[in-house]
């Protein structure tokens, strides 16, 4: 399926947008993001983020697990449901002992409309292991910045609602918080399942100590 113009435009603009955001943050005294994100910043305890059940979310919720993170919103016409359906099918292809080590995450790119209740109802159509992340816009944007993900909201699109430009990659993050890979949302379920299986296997390998 071809990316709609909205998302293709957003993806093309990503380097420009991130550069502009970096300039603004630098002027505000915040360090600019690195060209390639290597380590995802931990979620602060006081960030105000919550899951689809309204429970507070901190870094401890994901300790020791592999994260498969997607930034999207419930009014998204095609790329979001496609990505979440692919993740669901991929996890269903994995043995339970491997699937339990992986947490699929939907981060609300549109938290103003996608509160915990809305996200909970939306995720009923997908894998039961999904965790939603919503909360203050600033906290969501900081999380997106850590991942190098694009979010552009257009709140003046008329009575029919508004659109949100966002990166469509799936972000694969290791148990230690290292960004392993960015995977295209159009990846097939079989290919994604094999990538998750390999990542889970690598994370489970014991590390050699000093000799």
In summary, what is this structure?
The chain starts with a helix and ends in a 7-residue tail after the last helix. The model is unreliable at 1-37 and 206-211 (pLDDT under 50).
Which descriptors apply to this entry?
single chain; 211 residues; alpha/beta; five-stranded mixed beta sheet; disordered C terminus
Question: Would you give an account of this structure?
Answer:
The structure is a single chain. This protein has a single domain, classed as Glutaredoxin, CATH 3.40.30. Helices cover 36% and strands 16% of the residues. It contains six helices and seven strands, in the order αβααβαβαββββα. It has helices spanning 5-27, 79-92, 96-99, 116-122, 137-147, 189-204, and strands at 66-72, 102-108, 131-133, 151-154, 163-166, 170-173, 179-183. The chain has a five-stranded mixed beta sheet, sandwiched between helices. Strands 4-5 form a two-stranded antiparallel sheet. The chain is globular and about 45 Å long. Mean pLDDT is 82; it is low at 1-37 and 206-211. GO terms for molecular function: metal ion binding. This is SCO family protein. Belongs to the SCO1/2 family. It holds the Pfam family SCO1-SenC.
Q: Order the strands across the largest sheet as they lie in space.
A: 3-2-1-6-7
Shape: globular
Amount of beta strand: 15-25%
Termini gap = 52 Å
**Uncertain runs with pLDDT below 50, 5 residues or more?**
1-37, 206-211
Q: Which structural class fits the helix and strand makeup?
A: alpha/beta
Q: What is the CATH C level class, in words?
A: Alpha Beta
Question: How confident is the prediction overall: mean pLDDT?
Answer: 82
The helix tally amounts to 6
Largest sheet: 5 strands, mixed
Q: What is the helix/strand order?
A: HEHHEHEHEEEEH
| Count of strand segments | 7
CATH superfamily: Glutaredoxin
CATH architecture: 3-Layer(aba) Sandwich
The CATH topology is: Glutaredoxin
Family: Belongs to the SCO1/2 family.
Keywords: Copper, Disulfide bond, Metal-binding, Signal
InterPro entries: SCO1/SenC, Thioredoxin-like_sf, Thioredoxin_domain
Protein name: SCO family protein
């Amino acid at each position: 399926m071809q990316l709609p113009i909205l998302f293709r435009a957003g993806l093309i603009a990503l380097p420009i947008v991130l550069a502009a955001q970096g300039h603004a943050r630098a002027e505000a005294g915040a360090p600019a993001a690195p060209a390639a994100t290597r380590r995802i910043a931990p979620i602060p305890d006081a960030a105000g983020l919550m899951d689809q059940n309204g429970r507070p979310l901190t870094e401890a919720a994901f300790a020791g697990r592999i994260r498969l993170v997607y930034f999207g919103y419930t009014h998204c016409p095609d790329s979001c449901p496609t990505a979440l359906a692919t993740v669901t099918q991929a996890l269903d292809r994995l043995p339970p002992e491997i699937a339990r080590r992986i947490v699929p995450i939907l981060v609300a790119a549109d938290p103003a409309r996608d509160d915990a209740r809305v996200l909970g109802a939306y995720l009923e159509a997908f894998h039961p292991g999904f965790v939603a992340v919503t909360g203050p816009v600033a906290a969501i944007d900081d999380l997106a910045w850590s991942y190098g993900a694009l979010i552009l909201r257009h709140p003046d699109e008329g009575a029919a609602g508004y659109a949100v430009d966002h990166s469509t990659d799936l972000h694969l993050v290791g148990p230690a918080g290292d960004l392993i890979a960015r995977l295209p949302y159009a990846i097939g379920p079989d290919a994604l399942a094999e990538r998750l299986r390999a990542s889970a296997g690598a994370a489970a390998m014991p590390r050699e100590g000093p000799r």
